[in-house]
Amino acid sequence: MVWVRRRCAAAAAKATRSLSARSRALLVRLVGAGLVGVAGGLLSAAFLGSLNWAATTRDNFDWLVWLLPVGGLLVGLLYHRFGQPIAGGTSLVLDAAHVPDGEVPTRMAPMIWSGSVASHVVGASVGREGAAVQIVASVTDDVGRRLRIDRFSRSALLVCAVAAAFGGLFGVPVAGGFFALELQREPRRHISIFPFTFASSVIAHLVALSVGVEHHRPFHIDDLHLSWSHVWRYVVAGIFFGLVASVFVRFGHFVKRVFERSVRWPPARPLIGGVCVLALMGLAGTRDYLGVSFGLVDVALTGAVGIAAAAFVWKLVFTGISLGSGFVGGEMLPLFVIGALAGAQFARATNASIPLFAALGRTLRMARPTRLSHRLPCRDPRVG
Question: Which CATH superfamily is domain 27-210 in?
Answer without folding.
Answer: Clc chloride channel (1.10.3080.10)
